[in-house]
Structure formats: structure tokens, C-alpha cells
From TrEMBL:
Subcellular location: Cytoplasm
Native source organism of the sequence: Priestia koreensis
A Gene Ontology molecular function term of the record: ATP binding
Superkingdom of origin organism: Bacteria
Gene Ontology process terms (BP): asparaginyl-tRNA aminoacylation
Subunit details: Homodimer.
Family to which the UniProt record says this protein belongs: Belongs to the class-II aminoacyl-tRNA synthetase family.
Name of this chain's protein: Asparagine--tRNA ligase
EC category name: ligase
Residue span(s) of domain Aminoacyl-transfer RNA synthetases class-II family profile: 130-430
PROSITE patterns xrefs: AA_TRNA_LIGASE_II
Keyword Aminoacyl-tRNA synthetase found: yes
């Protein structure tokens, strides 16, 4: 019977065959331990010389790292194994012998591993990160589907920019200028006016020359948009969504989180509601902590966000940023025109902003005024302005960066490990 490693719990005591690669091995004179992987998981196969033919034992001992095999054996429960099971091998069939596999069990430098990303993905750690990423994606669809959202796919090629063109990749769309999308938000607002509650999930691009551990050139965004939704409603959706995702990963990826050495107690605490602090109060806090260089109207950088987050054991909302710091479409606070009804959600443990969101301007005159103030072309944004002309309503939305969220939940240091093939400032290969 041919099965996968993920299915062995259903076949204890039975003889099965697993198609696998040899991740690693060790052997003595009379026993060989094969570390097997098949994409669904990792499992140890034990080959005892006295229990198999000489040819099988010699093949097990001589097979090289990352060679592909069909391994037959009896599934046994094993409390010593993190996986909980091992395979008592009865036969090994070589499919393909790998020669001089470049990523050996020794330490390798980051650049070397990135050059071999197509192979590095096979490692136990990278496998665990990708499984956590997959669970976050699964839980995302689950949350929004269960809460009445419709998935909408905004275009990747756009003729305008939601937040200015300085960080966009420019291209030609036949005889017109076009840009790779940095956000689907404006299109999602149009979709919300048609379908009420919508979300998108797709690639976005920023031509930002950043080399920090939080930045990618190409990354994935989850962008919900909700009609008849005001600022406070928006925050509640965000904290419920993030709580759902974290608890789903805890429930379904415990083995992977243990492989990554993640402190589970820090994730178990991530449940709504989340604490909130205004920009003004955050600024006072930073001054008390010795950050004298930052003044009202300045944006917070990574050290500032980290200092604020360290005061909480959950993600924290920083709300009501100065109007001058934020994009043209954000709704001003009705009590203070110098700040907007927005929030950034800062993850704990130094992982920085994972969500940016706001209530959107729904007044046509005010939005037209903002377009002029930001020196944007009214003709380019004509369709967007028309959303306020024909049945405008209060509406809100947000964007969650998938890779930063994966990094935080996984506990990995750099976002380059959170996407299968990262696009970085100086990396377009492989």
C-alpha cells in the first residue's frame, strides 16, 4: 500500500510503501537510520541488518543525500520521535541517486543558501515555515468566507497608484504608462460598493530600496474592504481575523512550530481584543523612553515600533496618525482634522507593522480636495471619485502583509524565509 508520511498514523502495524527523498542518514555496523521526507512530512526509517537482505542493507548505507527512494516497512509508534512514528524498513528501492548535493548538513552562509533556494526549500526548517504559511492562507479564506466576504481579484497592472508613484515599478502597457500594483485597495473599494464585504489576496510590488529584515520587493497582501463599516468596526474585524489565524496555526501546525523552536506561550495569548494607543500617546511614550529625535508629524521607524510593542504581550494598534503622514483617501477624525481615522497593527517581538488600515473618505467634495492637495490627476482617478458620486457610504478596510505575519507567527528572523522564492533588492535568482 502506497501512502504519504502524513497518513502513517492511520496505518500503525501495517506494511506500507512511501515515496521519499533521503534527507540525511547515519549508520553503524548493524543498523541504519534513514531520515526520510516526502513533502508531507519527515520520518525516520530504521533498517536492521539482521532483518533485511544484504543488498537492501548495503543500499540503505550507501544511498546519498537527496536520492529518491521507495521505502517499504511497518509503521510503529515511537514516543521518542517528535513525529510520533517511525518505519521499520523491510525494503528499499532506489529511484534516482543524487550526486554531490550542495546543501550538506554542515552550516552554510545565507547568500549560498539563497543562491540554492530551489533546494533549500527541502530543509526541515524551510518546510515548516512553508506549512505555517499555507495554514495562514487556509485560515484566511476560512475566516472571510465564514464572515460573509466575497473574494475579488483586483488587477496587477494599473494606470494609477493608490499611494503615489515613487515606489512603483513602471512599465509600458502598449502606448500607455502602467505600474505593477502596490495595493488593490482602490479597486476593492469599488467592489465593496457592489458586494458589501470583499477581500483580495494577491501579489503586490514595491520598488522600495530597502534592505531590512522586514522588506520584500514582491509580497502578498490580504486586503478586505467593507461598506457601511466605520473605524471601530474595522479594528474589530482586524483583531478577530488575526486571532483566528494565530489560533488556527497553533491548532494545526504544532509540529512545525516545535521544529522552528517557537515559544508557543506567546502565541497562545494572541486573542482579541488588542490594546490601542494613539499616535500622540505613542509619541509621549517614546520621548519617555529616550527617543528625543522624533517629533510630532514624523513617522515611526522600526526601533520606535519595537519599543512600543515591547510594552504589550499582544499586537497593539497605533491609531490616529497625522494626516500629513497618510495617503489621500483616509477619513479625517471628525474632532481633529490634523489626524485621520487609521491604525497600524504592530506585532510583538520586534516584527513591526503587519496591518495598515483606515476608514476611507466617503464625502465627494473632500476627496476631490485631497486629490488636488496631493497633486494627483483627477482624470486618472475619475472612476474612483465616482464611487463617492453614486450612493457613497462610510466604508473601511485594511491590508495585511502575509510574509511579515508568517515571520512573526513562525518566529523566523527575516522575511526572505517566509516566501518560496523571495525577491529582494539585489536578488532575482532563482
Amino acid at each position: 500500500m502506497k501512502i504519504t508520511i502524513s497518513e502513517v498514523n492511520k496505518h500503525v502495524g501495517e506494511e506500507v510503501t512511501i515515496g521519499a527523498w533521503l534527507a540525511n542518514k547515519r549508520s553503524s555496523g548493524k543498523i541504519a537510520f534513514l531520515q526520510l521526507r516526502d513533502g508531507t512530512g519527515f520520518m525516520q526509517g530504521v533498517v536492521v541488518k539482521a532483518e533485511v537482505g544484504e543488498d537492501v542493507f548495503q543500499l540503505a548505507k550507501s544511498t546519498t543525500q537527496e536520492s529518491s527512494l521507495y521505502v517499504t516497512g511497518v509503521v510503529r509508534e515511537d514516543e521518542r520521535s517528535p513525529f510520533g512514528y517511525e518505519l521499520t524498513v523491510t525494503n528499499v528501492e532506489l529511484i534516482h541517486a543524487a550526486v554531490d548535493y550542495p546543501i550538506t548538513p554542515k552550516e552554510h552562509g545565507t547568500e549560498f543558501l539563497m543562491d540554492h533556494r530551489h533546494l533549500w526549500l527541502r530543509s526541515k526548517r524551510q518546510h515548516a515555515v512553508m506549512k505555517v504559511r499555507n495554514e495562514i492562507i487556509r485560515a484566511t479564506y476560512e475566516f472571510f468566507n465564514e464572515n460573509g466576504f466575497t473574494k475579488i481579484d483586483p488587477p496587477i497592472l494599473t494606470g494609477s497608484a493608490p499611494e503615489g508613484t515613487t515606489e512603483l515599478f513602471h512599465t509600458k502597457y502598449f502606448d500607455e504608462d502602467a505600474y505593477l500594483s502596490q495595493s488593490g485597495q482602490l479597486y476593492m473599494e469599488a467592489a465593496a460598493m457592489a458586494l458589501g464585504k470583499v477581500f483580495s489576496f494577491g501579489p503586490t510590488f514595491r520598488a522600495e530600496k530597502s534592505k531590512t529584515r522586514r522588506h520584500l520587493i514582491e509580497f502578498w497582501m490580504i486586503e478586505p474592504e467593507m461598506a457601511f463599516c466605520e473605524f471601530e468596526d474595522n479594528l474589530q474585524v482586524q483583531e478577530n481575523y488575526v486571532s483566528h489565524v494565530v489560533q488556527s496555526v497553533l491548532k494545526n501546525c504544532s509540529l512545525e512550530l516545535n521544529t522552528l523552536g517557537r515559544d508557543l506561550s506567546k502565541l497562545e495569548n494572541i486573542k482579541a481584543p488588542f490594546p490601542r494607543i494613539t499616535y500622540d500617546d505613542a509619541l509621549k511614550f517614546l520621548h519617555e523612553k529616550g527617543f528625543d529625535d522624533i517629533q510630532w508629524g514624523d513617522d515611526f521607524g522600526a526601533p520606535h515600533e519595537t519599543a512600543i510593542a515591547e510594552s504589550y504581550d499582544k499586537p497593539v494598534f497605533i491609531t490616529h496618525y497625522p494626516t500629513s503622514l497618510k495617503p489621500f483617501y483616509m477619513q479625517p477624525d471628525p474632532n481633529r482634522e490634523d489626524v485621520v481615522l487609521c491604525a497600524d497593527l504592530i506585532a510583538p517581538e520586534g516584527y513591526g507593522e503587519i496591518i495598515g488600515g483606515s476608514e476611507r473618505i466617503h464625502d465627494n467634495d473632500l476627496l476631490q480636495k485631497r486629490v488636488k492637495e496631493h497633486e494627483l490627476d483627477p482624470e486618472t482617478y475619475k472612476w474612483y471619485l465616482e464611487l463617492r458620486k453614486y450612493g457613497s457610504v462610510p466604508h473601511s478596510g485594511f491590508g495585511l502583509g502575509l510574509e511579515r505575519t508568517v515571520a512573526w507567527i513562525s518566529g523566523v528572523e527575516h522575511v526572505r524565509e517566509t516566501i518560496p522564492f523571495p525577491r529582494l533588492l539585489n536578488r532575482l535568482y532563482p
